[in-house]
Structure formats: structure tokens, C-alpha cells
Amino acid sequence: MMSSSAETTWSFSSTALPPERRTAALQGLRERGIVRLEPLPDHLARVEIRKVSLPGFSILEGALGGLRQIAAPYDPLVGDDVFLGVNLAGRSIVHQGGRELVLDDGDAVFFSSAEKGFVIHRPTPVLFLGLRVPRKALALLAANLDGALLRLVTGRSAPLRLLTKYLRCVGADVADEPQILGRTVAAHVYDLIALIVGANADAVAAAEDRGVKAARLRAIKTDIARHLADGELTIADVAARQGVTLRYVHKLFEGEGASFSRYVLDRRLEAAYRVLTDQRQDHRSILSIAFDSGFADLSHFNRTFRRRYDATPTDVRFGRAV
């Protein structure tokens, strides 16, 4: 088991544990706020999980297999929180109050365990993402939340796909700076969950304006980062991959007082600066650094770099920048 110094994030892996020690190790996870994990008969339990506790919600993600998760009715460990469990890959079977739901790739389940508890069977390995949110945080946003009955959300749900993508994009950043980013991300998560389970009429517009825009912008910025080295990258490419219009992308950046092209240029200059100040990269030519940062023209790179840092790339490389 590994933890961060602030205990905001911790992880656990059963990989190195011999089979005879796994049951006891899984039982010990309850002290970390994890509901009971019980190996299934004739199965070898597999657990690879990471938990991030943030202001207003928590995330549990990883892989589980050969076991079942059990929460008893009125379990003090879960209280009055509601849960959204996303089955990223694999199959899970959820039981609650005589009902059974089967989750396949991309599906999710929304529920509360306060009165009835729940059991989730995962006989084969499953990649999952679980969110735990205070019921009262959603009460003003979501319709028909009373009881939070077991609900299946199919993988076709656009808000569900957007939420999953958003959490993957912000996970590392918010774990590093939970107090700064946590509450903002929590508000966006509440908006998206409300849209997933049925936001009330008053909350839909607000959710679209806050949570959806934030999630879309984060996904677009992540897309840009992944394709930054592509000198032919265009706004049309990004919009097409994200399934939105060019105008929508423009509006998202305008909301930040920026533009798509300015944002891309700034990220490319920063990427080049990082390489130029890394002594391990001294063997590389400035030309190759410029091209690998997404600049197709060396003169354009030199000109924009000097305007941004008030120094030439050579000055920065050899520590002569002021």
C-alpha cells in the first residue's frame, strides 16, 4: 500500500501478495474506507486500486476481479452518500433490494446504499471508476433523488462519457493540488452527475454552463497536449475528435480570454523551453527541438520564442537568459 504525504491519495495492489494472505489484506482495506471485499469461491482475488479523497467527493479507480463488494444496510462506512460506479471494461453484476443489474463495457450504475446496502459481483477482471458524493450536494440539482434507487446508465449516455473523460483529464492535477482545485472540480462533477441521472429544470442550464463547458475544455486541452508535436494540428482536427463544432471550441477559449491558436502556441513554446533548460537534452539541435514542439518553421519559432521569453533559444540553453 502506498500513500501521499497528505493522505489525499493512496493505492493498494494485491499483485505481490501470496494467495493465502490476500483475504486478510482485503479485510484491512475497510480501515481505508473501502466496503468489504470478499474473494469468490474458487477465484483468486485481484485488487489494483487508487483512492483520491477531495473536498466534496472521492474517487476510487482501478481493477477488481475474482471477488464481490458488499455494503450492509445502514453501513456507517457509507452513510448517506450516493455512488456512481462506471464499468470501464469488463462485466459487473449489481444486486440491491431484490434487483439485479448487469453492467457491460462503458455502463454505469447510480445508487445509494443507506437503506438496502448492495453487492457487486466481479468474477472476472473489471476496470472501473467509482465516485462517492454527498447526497445533499446533488439534492438541489438532480430530480427524483429521494431514495436514489438503483439506476442503470448505459454507455451511450453523453454526459457519462464526458464525466469519465473529464476525471481522467483532471485526476493527476487535482490530486496534486486538492485544496486549490478540489472544490471547483467537485462543482463540475455534481453538474455532470445531475445531467446523468436527470437534472431538474432549473439546474440543466447551469450544469451545461459550468460542468459541461469545463469538462469539454479540459478534454480539448488534453487532446491538444497529446497532439502538440503535430505541426499540422488545426482546430478542425480537435473539434472533430471531440465531436463538437469549431465555433464551440472558439467560444470555450474566448470564455478564458484566449484563443485556440494562442493557447497552442503558448503550450509549444513552453514545451520547447522545458527541453532547452534540460541539460540531458543538450545533444539535441534547436531545430529538432522546435520541430518536436510542433513548429514547422524555424524562423517563426525563433521569433515567437524571443517575444515570449525576451531571449533567444540559444541564450536560454546556455543560461544567458535574464
Describe this structure in words.
This protein is of the alpha+beta class and 322 residues long. The chain has a domain of 155 residues: Sandwich (Jelly Rolls), CATH 2.60.120. It is 43% helix and 23% strand. The chain has eleven helices and 13 strands. The strands form two sheets. Strands 1-2-4-5-12-7-10-13 form an eight-stranded antiparallel β-sheet. A five-stranded antiparallel β-sheet has the order 3-6-11-8-9. Helix 3 runs antiparallel to helix 4, helix 4 crosses helix 5 and helix 5 packs across helix 6. The longest helix is centred in the middle third of the chain and has 26 residues. The protein is globular, with a radius of gyration of 23 Å. The two termini are 45 Å apart.
Q: Report the structural category.
A: alpha+beta
Annotated CATH architecture of the domain at 2-156: Sandwich
N- and C-termini, Cα separation: 45 Å
What is the C-alpha radius of gyration, as a whole number of Å?
Answer: 23 Å
CATH homology group of the domain at 2-156: Jelly Rolls
Strand line-up of the largest beta sheet:
1-2-4-5-12-7-10-13
SSE sequence, one letter per element:
EEHEEEEEEEEEEHEHHHHHHHHH
Reading off the top of the CATH hierarchy, the class of the domain at 2-156 is best stated as: Mainly Beta
Globular, elongated, flat, extended or rod-shaped: what is the shape? Answer: globular
Q: Into which percentage range does the β-strand content fall?
A: 15-25%
